Amino acid sequence: MPRTQRKLANSGIYHIVFKGINHEKIFQENSKKRMILKIMLEKMQETELEIFAYCIMPTHAHILIRGKMEEISRFLSRTEITFAMRYNQGKERNGHLFQNRFFSQAIENEVYFWNCIKYIHDNPVKAGLASDSREYAFSSYTEYLMEKPYFLSGNAIRMVRHTFGTVERFENYEEEYTPGVCFGGDEEEIYWQKRKNIERELEKIESTEIFKNSRGNYQRSKEAKEFAERCGVQQVELFRILQDIEKDTSPE
C-alpha cells in the first residue's frame, strides 16, 4: 500500500515527531537526551533550517521546524543514523532504532504556531515527568524564558518579543489548542489529547443524549458528525472516547 503523501506547508513550518521503534525508550536516560540534542545541533550547522520549539521525551522527540521538506527529511535521517550508531555502540546492540517514517503536520497560521509551541512545552507535564514546564531540562521552554537561543533559531525569540512584548505574557499564554493540529506523540499521548479536546467541547452542549438512539446507543448522525469534526476525530473514535468518559465518571 503506497504511503500517504505528506501535506506541504506554505509557511514552510512543520511539527515533526520522530519515535523509537516499538515505543522503545531510547531517550530514557538523560545522557541520551543530551546526545540527541548535541547531534541535532551538529547536523543543523549543515542546513538552513530553523527550530522554533523542541522537546525530548523518553520514547520520542518533538520539533517545530521551518524549511523545505526535503531538507528536513535529510536532517532527520542524518540525525537518526548518527544517534543510532552511537547508541548501539554504547549498548552493544545492533539493528534499527527509529520508526521508518516520522510524523509531520503542516502549520499554516499564527494560532496553530503558538498553540503547537505550547503543546510541545506541555508534554513533560502531561506525561508526569515534571510538575512545571520550566523544570524540564530537555525542551526549548527555558531558552524562551531566558531569551538565550541555543538550539532555537534567533528568530524564535524575536517573534516572541514582537507577538507578546514580554516573556511573562508569553509564559502565561493560555489559548486553547486547535483540534488535530498538534497530535503526534505515542498512542497514549494522542488519545489523551483527543479526549481533552472532546471534554472541552462537551462543556458547550447540554447532553450526549443527542448522539444516541432510542436504545441508548451511540449512532452516526449529522449532529455527531459535526461534533466529531470540531474535536478533530472520526465518529467511531468519538463514540469510543465518550464511552470511556462515561465509564470514568459514572458512580461506583
Largest sheet: 4 strands, antiparallel
Strand order of the largest sheet: 2-3-1-4
Portion in beta strands: 5-15%
Q: What helical percentage do the residues reach? A: 40-55%
Q: Uncertain spans, ≥5 residues at pLDDT below 50?
A: 176-184
Rg estimate, integer Å: 20 Å
Q: How would you describe this protein?
A:
With 252 residues, the chain is α+β, with helices and mostly antiparallel strands. Helix content is 47%, strand content 10%. It has 9 helices and 4 strands; from the N terminus they run βαββαβααααααα. The chain has helices at 30-44, 69-91, 110-126, 141-146, 154-164, 167-171, 187-202, 222-231, 235-249; strands at residues 13-19, 50-56, 60-66, 103-107. The protein has a 4-stranded antiparallel beta sheet, sandwiched between helices. The longest helix is centred in the first third of the chain and has 23 residues, at 69-91. It is globular, with a radius of gyration of 20 Å. Residues 176-184 have low confidence and may be disordered.
What is the fold's blueprint, element by element?
Blueprint: E1 13-19, H1 30-44, E2 50-56, E3 60-66, H2 69-91, E4 103-107, H3 110-126, H4 141-146, H5 154-164, H6 167-171, H7 187-202, H8 222-231, H9 235-249
Antiparallel strand pairs: 1-3, 1-4, 2-3
